[in-house]
């Protein structure tokens, strides 16, 4: 089973000289998500998605992805998510199968969109703009007044909890906080969209209500992250980087409070 980090030998230049050294890298490997569906005595398999991710919390990643893409509308629609054992040796640990309940209907033609997501893009492979917008039907209850002292303290609290980042310096994080700024959940992944899917999957699995929480992401506020936040019903999303124009547009359409450039004592509210 692949782990979140990989060791390697490097040649390091420091203080005017080269020397051999050990280093630790973030692991990036493909995860294939398959769906089992239909009657229990006549199951069918649908190969849904391949995403480049950091191994770990794969079941949460699959759950979060299925939910934010609208394939399921509640965690109860899944029987289980397990790694597939009957795969090629090189695929072991990198294929999961999510078993839908028999009563959950799967329109395979609707989801035949050749999902392939890289670690930098969460919507690659979707066949239409309508498919991108389709899942954002929720209107969020407004967050209200932002507590600046709470908001500016969030990035440091997130960094303190990032175990893989401390060793590699090359991984994204998504963190869920309550209104007072208490850290509730944190997930890391080389893909910012995967980190958010893992976080949402963990919240769904733990039956954590997110309608009074705030989400912080370590990178920019791209459209796909805002989309996932809206689907999950999280009323405030903050990013240490910049938002895009379409991310701001989507946030305004659905009542999501969007914060960008959260650095030090400053931030922008969109």
Describe this structure in words.
Helices cover 26% and strands 32% of the residues. By secondary structure, it is α/β, with parallel strands linked by helices. The chain has two domains: 29-131, Ubiquitin-like (UB roll) (Roll), CATH 3.10.20; 148-269, Cytidine Deaminase, domain 2, CATH 3.40.140. It has a six-stranded mixed β-sheet with strand order 9-8-10-11-12-13, sandwiched between helices. Strands 5-6-3-4-7 form a five-stranded mixed β-sheet, with helices on one face. β1 (5-14) and β2 (17-26) form a beta hairpin. The longest helix is centred in the middle third of the chain and has 14 residues, at 148-161. The model has no long low-confidence stretch (mean pLDDT 90).
User: According to CATH, what is the topology of the largest domain?
Assistant: Cytidine Deaminase, domain 2
Number of strands: 13
How much beta, percentage-wise? Answer: 25-35%
Number of domains: 2
- How widely separated are the two ends? 42 Å
Shape: flat
Known CATH architecture of the largest domain: 3-Layer(aba) Sandwich
Mean of pLDDT? 90
Uncertain runs with pLDDT below 50, 5 residues or more? none
Radius of gyration based on Cα positions: 19 Å
CATH class of the largest domain: Alpha Beta
CATH superfamily of the largest domain: Cytidine Deaminase, domain 2
Number of helices: 7
The largest sheet is: 6 strands, mixed
Roughly how much helix do the residues carry, as a percent range? 25-40%
Major sheet: order of its strands?
Answer: 9-8-10-11-12-13
Secondary structural class: alpha/beta
Strand/helix succession: EEEEHEEEHHHEEHEHEHEE
């Amino acid at each position: 089973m692949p782990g979140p980090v990989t060791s390697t030998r490097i040649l390091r230049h420091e203080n005017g000289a080269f020397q051999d050294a050990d280093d630790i890298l973030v692991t990036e490997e493909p995860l294939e998500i398959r769906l089992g569906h239909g009657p229990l005595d006549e199951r069918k398999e649908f190969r849904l998605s391949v995403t480049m991710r950091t191994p770990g919390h794969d079941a949460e990643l699959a759950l979060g992805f299925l939910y934010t893409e609208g394939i399921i509308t509640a965690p109860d629609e899944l029987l289980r998510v397990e790694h597939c054992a009957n795969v090629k040796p090189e695929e072991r640990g990198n294929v999961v199968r999510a078993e839908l309940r028999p009563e959950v209907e799967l329109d395979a033609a609707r989801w035949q969109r050749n999902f392939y997501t890289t670690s930098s893009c969460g919507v690659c492979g979707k066949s239409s703009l309508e498919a991108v917008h389709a899942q954002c039907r929720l209107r969020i209850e407004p967050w209200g007044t932002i507590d600046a002292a709470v908001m500016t303290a969030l990035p440091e609290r997130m960094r303190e909890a990032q175990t893989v980042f401390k060793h590699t310096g090359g991984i994204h994080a998504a963190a869920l906080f309550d209104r007072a700024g208490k850290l509730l959940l944190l997930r890391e992944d080389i893909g910012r969209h995967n980190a958010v899917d893992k976080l949402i999957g963990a919240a769904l699995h733990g039956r954590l209500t997110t309608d009074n929480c705030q989400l912080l992401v370590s990178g920019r506020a791209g459209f796909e992250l805002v989309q996932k936040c809206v689907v999950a019903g999280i009323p405030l999303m903050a990013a240490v980087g910049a938002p895009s124009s379409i991310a701001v547009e989507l946030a305004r359409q659905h009542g999501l409070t969007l914060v960008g450039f959260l650095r030090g004592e400053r931030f922008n509210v969109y």
